[in-house]
Specification:
Layout lengths: L3 H9 L14 E6 L2 H11 L11 H15 L11 E9 L8 E14 L2 E12 L2 E13 L24 E5 L3 H9 L9 H5 L10 H11 L8 E7 L7 E10 L2 E8 L2 E10 L2
Antiparallel strand pairs: 1-3, 2-5, 2-7, 3-4, 4-5, 6-8, 7-10, 8-9, 9-10
Helix pairs in contact: 1-3, 2-4
Length: 274
């Protein structure tokens, strides 16, 4: 499931002229869930293994199409250096591992950002023509330009604030490599201190979607089957680190954040899907 060839192609094509608008391409794939892969993903992210897909798992299945779309020269922003700044997923109903998933990915909302340019990669998952899952990933290209006015960055969920931690994790140095093995996201900033330093990080950093998944796993059993999770990614989570998860229940919704001595790495809001 490694996407290394696409990352290499993207790196080679990063130099030179690019399109000034988003391609109208919609990429599709049909997936039968590999239960061994599902078990590996659940183990890395802390979910219990059962027949219901973790809420964040379809993102991994759609991610290959995201990278394929962003690696092409028709995509206006070079893939190397893109930063995942926000993510929203909507689970419309319980998704069983035995169901055949029809996945579609396209790009939209290419706009200026106070720090560069931003774009959304949008994924949809259907089962037999029924929409069961939606995802929106917002990426930032620092220093890039986009046509038109600067758009407002996605609003970040508020921090939970002071109080006792709901969970404390030791995030080991190999977390980036382990998540890369199940997600296909082999961006070098996650894999090794030396490759991360080439991009300006003192050490390798955890994948934002690993942190988002690990946070949801702590709440497993207390969440509705149909849910929406909105996440904003903050300071990079250096590996290794010890982090704290803080949560606050408000009615049938949850606010949460993940922090360490390095600052706040993620804020999120989780509640029932409409």
């Amino acid at each position: 499931m490694s996407l290394a060839p696409l990352y290499v192609r993207a790196a080679v094509g990063a130099v030179g002229p690019r399109a000034s608008t988003l391609p109208g391409t919609v990429l599709h794939r049909t997936v039968d869930v590999d239960r061994t892969h599902l078990a590996d993903y659940a183990r890395v992210c802390g979910f219990r293994l059962n027949d219901a897909l973790p809420p964040t798992y379809p993102h991994v299945l759609a991610f290959a199409l995201q990278v394929e779309l962003m690696a092409g020269r028709s995509f206006p922003l070079p893939l190397p250096g893109l930063v995942h700044v926000a993510n929203t997923i909507t689970v419309h109903r319980r998704i069983d591992a035995a169901e055949r998933l029809e996945i579609a990915v396209h790009a939209e909302r290419f706009a200026g950002h106070p720090k560069g340019a931003q774009v959304d990669l949008v994924a949809a998952v259907d089962v037999g023509g029924e929409r069961v899952w939606d995802g929106r990933s917002t990426y930032l290209a620092r220093g890039a330009r986009a046509p038109g006015a600067v758009a407002e960055p996605p609003a970040a969920p508020p921090e939970v604030g002071d109080g006792p931690a709901s969970a404390v994790w030791r995030v080991e140095a190999d977390t980036g490599r382990r998540y890369a093995a199940v997600s296909g996201d082999v961006n070098p900033i996650h894999l090794h201190p030396l490759s991360a330093k080439a991009f300006g990080f003192p050490r390798a950093i955890a994948h934002g979607m690993w942190t988002a998944a690990r946070s949801l796993a702590v709440l497993e059993g207390r969440l509705p089957e149909a849910l929406i999770q909105a996440v904003a990614f903050g300071r990079p989570l250096l590996l290794p680190s010890t982090v704290e998860l803080r949560t606050r229940a408000t009615g049938d919704a949850w606010a949460l954040d993940v922090r360490s001595r390095g600052g706040v790495h993620l804020t999120a809001a989780v509640g029932h899907a409409a």
